Amino acid sequence: MIKIAVYGKGGIGKSTTVSNVAAALAEKGLKVMQIGCDPKADSTMQLRHGEAVPTVLELVNQRKNDFELEDMVRIGFGGVVCVEAGGPTPGMGCAGRGIITALEKLKEKGAYEVYQPDVVLYDVLGDVVCGGFTMPMRKGYADKVFIVTSGENMSIHAAANIAMAIDNFKNRGYASLGGLILNRRNVKREDEKVAELAHDFKTSVVGTLSRSEQVLLAEEQQQILLEAFPDSEMADEYRKLAEQILAVCEERE
Amino acid sequence: MRQAYRIIPIYTADVSGVCSALYELGGMTVMHDPSGCNSTYNTHDEIRWYDEDSLIFISGLTEIDAIMGNDEKFIHDIEEAASELKPRFIALASSPIPYMNGTDFPAIAEVTEQDTGIPTFAVPTNGMHDYVHGAGMALEAIAEHFVNEDRCEGFYPADCRNDKAEAGIENERDHRRVNLLGVTPLDFGPLDHAETMKHSLEQYGWQINSMWAMGDSLDQLSKSADAAVNVVVSSVGLRAAKVLQRKFGTPYVVGAPVGRFTEKLSEAMEAAVSSAKGFAASEIEKNAQTRHLSETEAAQEPADNVVYAACRKVSENLQDANKAEENTRHQAEITLIGEPVTMGSLAAAIELQYGRSVRVLCPLEETEGLLAPGDEAVCGEEMMEEKLKDAGIIAADPLYRPICPKDAQFYELPHIAFSGRIYLKKIKQMPGFADLI
Fold first, then answer.
1. Do A172 and B110 make contact, defined as CB atoms within 8 angstroms?
2. What is the CATH number of the domain that holds B233?
3. CATH code at position B417
4. Which of B129, B159, B187 is the C-terminal boundary of a domain?
5. Residue B2 lies in a domain
6. A252 to chain B, minimum CA–CA distance in Å?
7. How many CB atoms lie within 10 A of CB A123?
8. Most buried of the four, B64, B206, B274, B299, by CB within 10 Å?
9. B366 to chain A: which residues are within 8 Å by CB?
10. CA atoms of B51 and B29, how far apart (whole Å)
11. CA trace torsion A114, A120, A123, A124 (10° rounding)
């Protein structure tokens, strides 16, 4: 089982990227599970065409332990197994602790044994703001972390913070950095700046995604790009990225 | 039903359970908290505190440590203490604050073990569960980390057990070797009280290999694979029993020797040893591979090896059907309150000896598969008060008395996990558990 966590600045396109990569991997015949680790619970929204799914934490909150694994899972486009960790109402509770509880509950309910995914993708909220948001990279969860960034300074700064957190935890048996994913915003010196960041953290840019209006059009239709425009050049960019991510993970194995 | 406690206290918490279970094993138990868990533990929960040394380390977590996540300071302090005190192992127990901020104890344990070379493990407590949960996980960790076949002969060695059985190497002495799992002062009081269980089983020809974890060293516990059967004498021992069954194929029965029930328990132990002899080595392998599912399933299934439950079912069948039905409801003549295995065993002993119907009310969390028909898990003071309304004869910790009906006959059964040291003098004057009736 390949387990990957994807981090990056809020709004940089993590969920869109992860969902399309998930679908591209599913196209190859792999069983994919995508777990949204964000209180907003919108990671897999396009994969499930906007169909509602109760989050893991909603279920725990309402029913304690009186629910089944199937209650917190929806099968999305391409057969991708979709799960949303969820979290507290904005401004209340503790979202970081929520991620820990949700991932532990998923494990406790036997999600990995029952669905037996070939690939698990953890799509994690913005920055590593506290201990809870390192959960997807902790031992027993992801093996590799990929960071989505553009060439914008704030995005690079956030990516550097995440890479630093991974480096800090290297003696703890956590996931290692798999590489950067450049999601272009077409700013000046974009490729150069992201390549510099990769060099600073002794990693590489594993894939580059163009800025595409089609991604937004697909989103309007509550679909991912691979479903709405499967024959587009952008779809091929996602497929290529999926191949490269897989290659990095298989190299490790 | 509200869960507020107005009159009675709550049970000892999970962190104290960890410390109590590991107290005599030569390790260093680390409580990562500002000091509240520590003072509760040594002031109320630990009766050995002034008589016997143990390494209990308090991190003294501060507000700023919690906010900033100063794990490095925590690790440094543990390592400094460990280098001076040289414990056999380090157990890291969490408390509410590090639980809430998601401190990664397994990772800290890994770093500490790498740095010190001392076996280190995390016990995932959070201060919000009762002692059974914490002590149970602590003994589970001991079974997982320290009991290996290379430390002992192994009564059921995975790779050669069939050969050994065929060769007739096993002798009668090996067949009678037993570990008692789940023995802490929180349930059984001072060591001499706990040892009454040993003496009681010895009278039936059993040899006590180890007692988890009072009166025996870590070295003795690490030889637990030598036993032919494990006896879970309180719910604290259940998790360790499952680990030992998975690792070595050792069967377990649930029940504590007391009064006439000891004979039934001994018979069940003999039956468990006989049936386990046919257990193929491949089964152990299979258990190891399906660890997650098998242990989860096992927890949900009603267990046949809960001896007092089976025993009480039989005595129920012997009675008139209507009367039996009545007896298992609220009309039981005698009500016992407390930990499910000890009270369930005592209930069986009373039924066997006096033919009086007994029910157990269990206010602890881990009751699944441990209650006999008619027994009940009770959540909170209000529910307990309601359940006790019609009780005629009650045996429980003295602190329950204020919520019992005034006209009920009340027998004091002090329980350290409930009333701490308040009744310790009284406990010392009482017989040990196995000799209670």
1. yes
2. 3.40.50.1980
3. 3.40.50
4. B129
5. no
6. 21
7. 29
8. B206
9. none
10. 18
11. 80
Q: List alpha helices for B319-375, DSSP H.
A: 321-328, 340-354
Position B328 pLDDT exceeds 50: no
Please report residues of A whose CB lies closer than 8 A to that of B111.
171-172
Burial class (CB in 10 A: 0-12, 13-18, 19+), B424: middle
Question: B91: closest CA among B12, B199, B18?
Answer: B18
CB contact under 8 A, B107 and A172: yes
Superfamily of domain A2-252: P-loop containing nucleotide triphosphate hydrolases (3.40.50.300)
Residue B406: which pLDDT band, with cuts at 50, 70 and 90?
Answer: very high
Whether chain B has a CB inside 8 Å of the CB on A11: the answer is no
Closest to B427 (Cα-Cα) out of B397, B401, B382: B397
Report the pLDDT value the prediction gives residue B300, as an integer from 0 to 100: 40
> Are the Cβ atoms of B69 and A131 closer than 8 angstroms?
yes
Residues B116-130: pLDDT tens digits? 999 999 999 999 999
On whether both B25 and B123 belong to a single domain, the answer is yes
- B238 and B195 co-located in one domain: yes
Q: Is the Cβ–Cβ distance between B38 and B31 less than 8 Å?
A: yes
Residue-wise pLDDT tens digits, A4-24: 999 999 999 999 999 999 999
Number of compact structural domains in chain B = 3
Q: Supply the mean pLDDT for chain A.
A: 93
Could you tell me if B100 lies within 8 Å of chain A, comparing CB atoms? Answer: yes
User: Do residues B295 and B316 share a domain?
Assistant: no
- In this structure, are B231 and B320 located in the same domain? no
pLDDT at residue B287 tops 60: no
Q: Whole-angstrom Cα distance, residue B171 to residue A32?
A: 54
Q: How many CB atoms lie within 10 A of CB B193?
A: 22
Q: Which of B101, B110, B296 has the CB atom closest to A173's CB atom?
A: B110
For tokens 């990772």, name the residue: B107
Structure tokens at B42: 């040594």
- Band of pLDDT at residue A44, cut at 50, 70 and 90: very high
CA of A144: how far to CAs of A38, A173, A253, B121, B253, in Å?
A: 19, 11, 11, 25, 44
Chain B residues with CB under 8 Å of A173 CB are 107, 110
| Min Cα separation A8/chain B (Å) | 21
Q: Can you tell me the ipTM of this complex?
A: 0.80
Q: B102 and A135: CB-CB below 8 Å?
A: yes
> How many angstroms separate the first and last alpha carbons of chain B?
35
For range B220-235, the mean pLDDT: 94
Report yes or no: B242 and B148 within 8 Å, Cβ to Cβ.
no
Query: What local confidence, expressed as pLDDT, does residue B280 receive?
Result: 42
Question: Is the pLDDT assigned to residue B242 strictly greater than 90?
Answer: yes
Would you say A150 and A185 are in contact if contact means Cβ atoms under 8 Å apart? Answer: yes
Q: How far is A85 from chain B (nearest CA, A)?
A: 16
